[in-house]
Design goal:
The structure is a single chain. It contains 25 helices and no strands. By secondary structure, the protein is mainly α. The radius of gyration is 23 Å and the shape is globular.
Length: about 450
C-alpha cells in the first residue's frame, strides 16, 4: 500500500488507503495502522488522525527515524511546537549524530520561529557533517540574516555561487543563489545572479528567461519584465510563457497598456495553437486580473466543457464562484473535482478554505487553511486562516494568524496583486480596520 502512495499520485493514495482499510478490517497490525497514518498525513483533514495513530503505534512498535521525523513535522504543521520540538530533538540529538536532512529541516523550523540563536547552535552540528554543502551554506546565510547581518549573508551566498560555478560549471547554483538573495532582501545582488544564470543557460534553455522576467515583475519593473518575455515568447512553450506573463501582470502593478500588450501576445499564441487549453486558461486569468470576472467565468466554463479535468480552470472558476452570491455550492463541487485530479496542493486547499468560509463552514475552513499553510506558509493564506478563525469565534487564534500574515508581508492600507485577489478587497479592509481598532 505504501508503494502505491509513494508515487505521489492522489488517486493512487486513495487506492492505498482503501487497501489498508481492508487489511485492518480483517486483522489489525501496528504496521498497517502506521502505514495508514502515513498515507493520511498527506490528505486534507487527515493530519490529526495521523498524529493520534502514529503516537499509539509508536508505543507498540519502535519508530524508524523517518517515521519520527514525519510525526515531528505533523505536530509542527498542527502548530503544536512543544510536541514537535520533542520529536525533533529526539532525532537530531541522537547519539552518534543526526541525519543531515532531518537536522537541516530542524534548523529551518527554528528559523521559522525566529529563533536564530538556537538555529546557530544546531547549524554548527550540520557544518561538521556537511561543511561544504549547499544547504549548509543556505542555512548559514539565513541565520546571519536573522541575526541582522545581511551584508555578511549576501557575501557568503555570492562567493559560494561564484566559486562553485567556476569549479563545476553548474549553472543551477547561480539560479539558486539568486532566489536565496531575493529571499534575503538583496534585490540588487539577486538580479546580478539571475542575469548570470540566464546568460549561462539560455542558449539551450531559452525559457529560463522567464525566471528573470518573474523576478523583475516582483520588483515592480513590469515593462522590463514584459520586454524579456516578449523577446523569448516564440522560443518557449506558449502556455508556459503565457501563464508566467499573466502572473507578472498580477504582481507588477499593470496598467491598461500592459494588459493590452499581453492580450495581443495571448491571442496571437491562441491563433497559432488553438488546441492548447492552458493558453485559454491564461486568457481567462488575464480577464480576471483586469477585473472582468464575468468574462473570465464564461471562458473557464468553455474550457471545462471541452476538458472537464483541466486543473487550473477547475481551481480558478471555483475561486471566482465562491465570491458570487448563490454559487459557493457549485464552487465546492469544482474544487473537489480539482482535488480528485491533482490532489490537495496548497493552492487548492486555499481555494477550498475560501469556499468553506463563504458557505459558513468556519471549522472546515480553518482545517483547509491550516493544511494549506503547512505546505506553503504565505501572507495570503494566513490572512484567510485569520478570517476563518474569527468566523469560528476563536479571536486569539485569529490574532496569531493575523500577526503571521503581517510578518510574511501582508500590510496596508493598499494591496497589490501579489497580496490578495481583488475580490478580497472588502474582506481585507474589514480585517485591517479590526486590527487598527484592537
Amino acid at each position: 500500500a505504501l508503494a502505491l502512495a509513494a508515487g505521489g499520485d492522489y488517486a493512487q493514495s486513495k487506492k492505498a488507503l482503501e487497501l489498508l482499510d481492508q487489511n485492518l478490517r480483517e486483522r489489525k497490525t501496528p504496521e498497517d495502522e502506521r502505514a495508514r497514518a502515513i498515507v493520511l498525513a498527506s490528505r486534507p483533514g487527515g493530519r490529526r488522525e495521523s498524529i493520534r495513530t502514529l503516537e499509539a503505534s509508536f508505543n507498540r512498535l519502535r519508530p524508524t527515524p523517518d517515521e519520527e521525523f514525519l510525526l515531528a513535522r505533523l505536530y509542527e504543521a498542527d502548530r503544536d511546537w512543544d510536541h514537535a520540538n520533542e520529536h525533533f530533538l529526539a532525532l537530531v540529538g541522537a547519539k552518534g549524530g543526526a541525519n543531515p536532512s532531518h537536522l537541516a529541516y530542524y534548523i529551518l523550523a527554528l528559523l521559522r520561529r525566529k529563533d536564530a540563536n538556537e538555529a546557530a547552535i544546531w547549524l554548527a552540528r550540520l557544518e561538521a557533517l556537511e561543511p561544504d554543502g549547499a544547504r549548509t551554506l543556505g542555512l548559514k546565510a539565513r541565520v546571519l540574516y536573522e541575526q541582522r547581518q545581511g551584508e555578511a549573508a549576501s557575501r557568503l551566498v555570492e562567493d559560494y555561487a561564484d566559486k562553485t560555478f567556476k569549479e563545476k560549471k553548474n549553472a543551477a547554483v547561480l539560479g539558486e543563489a539568486a532566489s536565496l538573495l531575493e529571499e534575503l532582501g538583496r534585490p540588487v545582488e539577486a538580479e546580478k545572479k539571475f542575469r548570470e544564470y540566464v546568460k549561462a543557460v539560455e542558449a539551450e534553455q531559452p525559457e529560463k528567461n522567464l525566471v528573470l522576467a518573474a523576478f523583475l515583475a516582483r520588483q515592480k519593473r513590469l515593462a522590463e519584465s514584459l520586454d524579456v518575455i516578449e523577446a523569448v515568447w516564440t522560443k518557449c512553450k506558449p502556455e508556459t510563457a503565457a501563464l508566467t506573463t499573466v502572473a507578472s501582470l498580477r504582481v507588477g502593478g499593470a496598467t491598461e497598456r500592459d494588459f493590452r500588450r499581453v492580450e495581443v501576445l495571448l491571442r496571437e499564441a491562441i491563433a497559432r495553437n488553438p488546441m492548447t487549453a492552458n493558453l485559454l486558461v491564461a486568457l481567462a486569468d488575464l480577464l480576471d486580473a483586469e477585473g472582468k470576472d464575468g468574462e473570465a467565468k464564461t471562458l473557464y466554463r468553455q474550457i471545462l466543457a471541452a476538458n472537464p479535468r483541466n486543473a487550473l480552470a477547475l481551481n480558478n472558476l471555483a475561486w471566482l464562484l465562491a465570491f458570487q452570491p448563490g454559487k459557493p455550492a457549485e464552487s465546492l463541487d469544482l474544487v473537489k473535482r480539482r482535488i480528485e485530479v491533482t490532489g490537495p496542493s496548497a493552492s487548492v486547499l486555499d481555494t477550498l478554505g475560501v469556499v468553506y468560509l463563504k458557505l459558513g463552514r468556519a471549522e472546515d475552513a480553518v482545517q483547509a487553511f491550516s493544511d494549506s499553510a503547512a505546505q506553503n506558509p504565505t501572507a495570503s493564506i494566513y490572512f484567510h486562516l485569520a478570517e476563518a478563525q474569527m468566523a469560528a469565534g476563536k479571536a486569539n487564534e485569529a490574532e496569531k494568524a493575523s500577526q503571521k500574515a503581517v510578518e510574511l508581508g501582508l500590510k496596508g492600507p493598499a494591496l497589490s496583486g501579489a497580496d490578495l485577489h481583488p475580490l478580497e478587497q472588502a474582506d481585507y479592509q474589514k480585517w485591517a480596520a479590526r486590527r487598527k481598532g484592537s
